[in-house]
Here is the input.
Amino acid sequence: METQTLPTHDGVPDEKQSMEAIRDLLFGQKTREIGDQIGEVESRLKNSISELENRLNNRFESLESFVKAEIGSAKEQFDSERSEHEKFQSEAGEKVKTLGDSLNDRFGKVKEDLKKLESENRNQVFERTKALSDEIADLSRRIHEKIDGEMGNLRKTAARKNELSELLIELGMRMQPKDEDGGDHDRHHD
Here is the structure.
């Protein structure tokens, strides 16, 4: 291990730099490890959120495609039947008129079915969106709880290490040799 040469003041190492060198030797590696752990937790959180956003976007796109396809199909069917009705009405007289009335009833039912289908699809979209939102909120809550727990543990560890550092500094200061007049070397008067 490489020893550090500390600047001296009249042959005595500077007290503040000595304490910082001791603190760095004792706690430098742990502090870096804690910093790395916090970085890993943040990285995992970002990845989890990104993954959730991708999953949610994929589900919304799938749901949107399904709804559009259903509505498009019903509209095509409606347009097709309406066109058919108009053709028959123009070709025949009374007989076609009776058939036209029948078709009008069918169109009314198709319209009602279309509205009902559209309403059901909206409800399904709403329910699926709500379920996905609830799932995301639950996952987010669990992630935050886990992060808060890990951050609390890291804070407790850091606080204990700071207390130990202060005790070691105080012990180091007490162990310094005394001057002939009973004072500590290189003590500054406040």
Summary: The radius of gyration is 39 Å.
